[in-house]
């Protein structure tokens, strides 16, 4: 690794190709990579020669242009958005950013913000995410809020500029980078205090702190302490070593933890493993119940810190439910370099946002996976969080997927909204397009419940596509368009009265018919029946008497 801490401002005209020492804020100087210095020297000499050749002598009106060559170059070397992003990074309270990286666009004719990372209280993890984001084969620059402990109880933040030139870079690209570096330095001039040119990045947080930035080792090592530890650590040398080995102030799971006001704490103040150990193990042991840190008041505060939501590895659903959240191998590049910006959400909405190494998703024909950090994800610069949404087909065309073009489709009710809001908008538009009327609900229960009538209900909500399965299972639904329920109920009332009247009329007619029927025939007496029986016997005898003889 080659690096040096340079004084900040414009590049000095006396820069040479040899290594030069510059006093840094925290100790002796480090060295600027020879090639980067040579490029800066050549570029500045060209500016100076051009100025001198224009006039026979250097008059005072041109002196500022020669000395302040970087500011002149800023008008030539485009670095759009760099100053604005630098201002955001410098305001950690408002924007919560740990770092931002600047790199070339696809045409390689401008440098712009490409990636950023959010600040947590886990400084080691933040630094690792930053290292993972640096390109392997291209130049870049970055602003980094480097925090460290000045003593046991107070922190310092040093905003630094890192110019990144990997060792494998071709000379032509190195020269191109040198041309833009001056403009970038001017754009970030008000927001950083040191500049560290780098050509490799093998250090962890502690090594970068102590070796590259040359901050005293004792201060850098404080990152591993449990700061303001309420379980007995007084902050004095040797105090931790005197504690029991199972004390949280000594436990490896609590390295780097900070016990502080839960209203101002960032994610990572107390590692989750440390929280679990303290709350579920250490303070449940009867032997530790008298420890100050296990007092209910202290534990109440600690529980609040431990409840701070962590940064999710994979984001919640950012696209519509009908879209699959993908994370393809293209997502290892910054979102700002995608040819079609809308591919950022189509291809990378499911990518991890923590900047750590993860297994790449395998595609057809691949036999193995490798761990890479995804640089295009939902929290990255350039990730498109909106789409043109609406039920009209015009809202879904490729040409409509910019805020300007979508706004031009107002006639079709297309709106530029966040992905997660699109389903609700479509439901609202579909419902508005659906006819409204009276919804009649007849109970399927036994015994049935009272029939319900609701006015101004859309057809999609009365047995249509937005009616729940539970409702359909419990009720028979009937929709009548553009009719008030009162009219329908009145029709039912009239029909019921007519039915009852018909029944009454039928009963009355039956009674009248019964009154007009003739009297029933007289019943035969026993003697009548006997005489008839004798007559039958005589007739039988007369018929068969000859045959029997």
Beta-strand share of residues? 5-15%
Q: How many domain modules? A: 5
CATH fold group of the largest domain: Severin
**What structural category do the secondary elements indicate?**
alpha+beta
The first-level CATH class of the largest domain is given as Alpha Beta
Query: Roughly how much helix do the residues carry, as a percent range?
Result: 25-40%
Number of helical stretches of at least 4 residues? 17
* CATH superfamily membership of the largest domain: Severin
Gap between N and C termini: 151 Å
What do the pLDDT scores average to? 78
The outline comes out as elongated
| Number of DSSP-assigned strands | 12
Q: What is the spatial order of strands in the main beta sheet?
A: 2-1-3-4-5
Radius of gyration in whole Å, from Cα? Answer: 43 Å
Which spans of ≥5 residues are poorly predicted at pLDDT below 50? 7-67, 362-368
Give the second-level CATH assignment, the architecture of the largest domain. 3-Layer(aba) Sandwich
Question: How would you characterize this protein structure?
Answer:
There is one protein chain. The protein has 17 helices and 12 strands. With 549 residues, it is α+β, with helices and mostly antiparallel strands. Helix 1 packs antiparallel against helix 2 (60-67). The protein starts with 33 loop residues before the first helix and ends with a helix.
């Amino acid at each position: 690794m080659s690096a040096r801490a340079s004084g900040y401002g414009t590049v000095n005209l006396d820069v040479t190709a040899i290594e030069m020492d510059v006093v840094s804020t925290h100790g002796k100087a480090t060295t600027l990579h020879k090639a980067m210095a040579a490029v800066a020297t050549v570029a500045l000499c060209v500016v100076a020669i051009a100025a001198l050749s224009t006039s026979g002598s250097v008059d005072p009106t041109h002196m500022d242009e020669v000395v302040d060559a970087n500011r002149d170059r800023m008008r030539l070397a485009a670095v759009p958005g760099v100053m604005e992003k630098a201002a955001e990074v410098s305001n950690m309270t408002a924007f919560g950013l740990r770092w931002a990286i600047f790199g070339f666009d696809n045409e390689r004719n401008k440098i712009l913000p490409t990636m950023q990372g959010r600040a947590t209280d886990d400084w080691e993890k933040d630094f690792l995410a930053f290292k993972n984001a640096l390109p392997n084969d291209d130049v870049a620059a970055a602003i980094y809020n480097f925090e460290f402990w000045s003593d046991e109880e107070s922190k310092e933040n040093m905003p630094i500029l890192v110019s990144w030139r990997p060792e494998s870079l071709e000379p032509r690209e190195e020269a191109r980078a040198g041309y833009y570096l001056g403009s970038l330095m001017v754009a970030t001039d008000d927001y950083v205090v040191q500049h560290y040119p780098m050509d490799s990045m093998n250090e962890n947080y502690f090594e970068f702190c102590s070796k590259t930035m040359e901050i005293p080792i004792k201060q850098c090592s404080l990152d591993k302490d449990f700061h303001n530890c309420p379980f007995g650590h007084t902050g004095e040398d040797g105090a931790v070593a005197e504690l029991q080995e199972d004390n949280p102030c000594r436990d490896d799971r609590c390295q780097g933890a900070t016990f502080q006001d839960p209203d101002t704490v960032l994610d990572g103040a107390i590692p989750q493993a440390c929280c679990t150990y303290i709350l579920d193990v250490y303070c449940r042991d009867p032997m530790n119940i008298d420890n100050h840190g296990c007092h209910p008041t202290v534990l109440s505060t600690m529980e609040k810190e431990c409840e701070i939501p962590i940064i999710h590895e994979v984001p919640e659903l950012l696209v519509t439910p009908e879209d699959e959240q993908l994370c393809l191998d293209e997502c290892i590049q910054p979102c700002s370099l995608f040819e079609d910006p809308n591919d950022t959400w189509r291809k990378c909405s499911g990518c991890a946002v923590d900047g750590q190494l993860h297994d790449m998703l395998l595609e057809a024909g691949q036999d193995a996976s490798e761990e890479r950090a995804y640089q295009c994800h939902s929290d990255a610069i350039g990730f498109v969080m909106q789409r043109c949404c609406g039920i009209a087909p015009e809202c879904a065309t490729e040409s409509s997927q910019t805020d300007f073009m979508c706004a031009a489709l107002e006639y079709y009710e297309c709106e530029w909204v966040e992905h997660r809001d699109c389903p609700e908008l479509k439901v609202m538009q579909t419902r508005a397009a659906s006819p409204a009327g009276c919804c009649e609900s007849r109970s399927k229960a036994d015994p049935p419940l009272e029939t319900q009538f609701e006015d101004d209900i859309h057809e999609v909500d009365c047995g249509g596509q937005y009616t729940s399965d539970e409702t359909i299972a419990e009720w028979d639904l009937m929709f009548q368009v553009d009719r008030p329920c009162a009219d329908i109920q009145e029709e039912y009332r009239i029909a019921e009265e007519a039915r009852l009247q018909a029944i009454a009329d039928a009963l009355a007619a039956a009674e009248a018919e019964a009154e007009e029927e003739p009297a029933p025939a007289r019943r035969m007496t026993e003697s009548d029946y006997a005489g008839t029986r004798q007559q039958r016997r005589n007739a039988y005898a007369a018929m068969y008497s000859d045959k029997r003889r």
